Amino acid sequence: MHVLVVHNRYASAQPSGENKVVDQEVELLRGAGHRVEVFERRSDDIAARSLLGKAAIPLLVPWNPAVRAELAARLRTERPDVVHVHNVFPLLSPAVLAACADAGVPAVATLHNYTQVCPPGTLQRDGRPCTECVGSTPLPAVRHGCYRGSRLATVPLAVSLSVNRRRWWSGVERFFCISGAQRDVLVRAGMPPERLAVKHNFVPEPGTRRTDAGEHVLYLGRLAEAKGVRLLMAAWDELAADGGVGVPLVIAGTGPLEPEVTAWAAGRDDVRYVGLYDTAECRTAIARSVAVVAPSTWLEAFGLVVVEAMAAGVPVVAAGHGAFVELVEDGVSGLLHRPGESASLASCIRRIAAEKDRNREMGQAARRRYEQGFSPAVGLERLVEGYRTAIAGRSGGGDSPSPLGDNSTGSRRGHLRERDGGSR
Questions:
Q1: Tell me, what CATH number does 19's domain have?
Q2: pTM, rounded to two decimals
Q3: pLDDT tens, 270-301?
Q4: Are residues 191 and 232 in the same domain?
């Protein structure tokens, strides 16, 4: 199968789960013998633009005509079987969907967050869940300045959501929701349910697993309010006041709360702030954990670090809302705490650290959960099934997946068979 992946890469200064997912899917598909190419823009390149170029970016967020022309030309030349769209903000825009329509190539899109119904994509405002724009206009987001605390910065996102809503809903053959919780929100917002399929992100085999009780509790992620960092600090202070849990807390990541985390951790024996880890360091740190903590206050659409912990046979303490509820079986593969409550989070950390036999059993259950639902083999199967469904839908074959060689009619079927030697 010939796939063109479309993605606006997030800035490299901050860890990005979306960038990681895109890279891993490209590698997975190529490893399975599919031809995969990438059409991308990089947010890192914004810094090199002239002042005028930077000032023009907000105008291109709703629609970038140059991207439409460039991508359409490439699609007509290369004729991929399907286009897989990921992030289009801020340099690509939904014009990529028009390019797919211009060239007659079916598109699928992974919804990594909630930007289809919420301008900043977080379903959160002032540290609390918010659904004010869901199923309505995005005017409340502008009024509250939901993107980066700025009304002006929110306007391009709100405009894009308003003017491109129908283009997304009609121009994408198949949406990949990364959790059932996310899909439920989008269906309630009015998105066409027949085009929304749940496809959890997969995680590659880590190459290392936990072999002992672990030596620390680990937080791995962006240092931001929505990720529950302040909540974690409050819970850890409660634990420390009660004698601690016998192992330190390791915090790895960067973000807006980094100065606050650095100051809080300074001079403490029970906390280590280690900055940003690379991939190998992340895997090692996870495999040495008593537990991985994911205390997000916003409704996570997935939670990559949770599945990375499962892959290493490490149980998780996670907030009991959003996608975490379907990823973590409470009391079996980890523990769920009451969202936003530091006392509940502290209690779960204390329990998972103290009950060593139970901790080991939960780690084993977490690993089984990973193998059954989040392994590369499962990820590849669901990814290719979605592509086949999109190709069948565009060619008039309906929504049911069928062998690749039978998904298209006329010249397109001949094109596939000539290149690939029949169905794969």
A1: 3.40.50.2000
A2: 0.84
A3: 999 999 999 999 999 999 999 999 999 988 99
A4: no
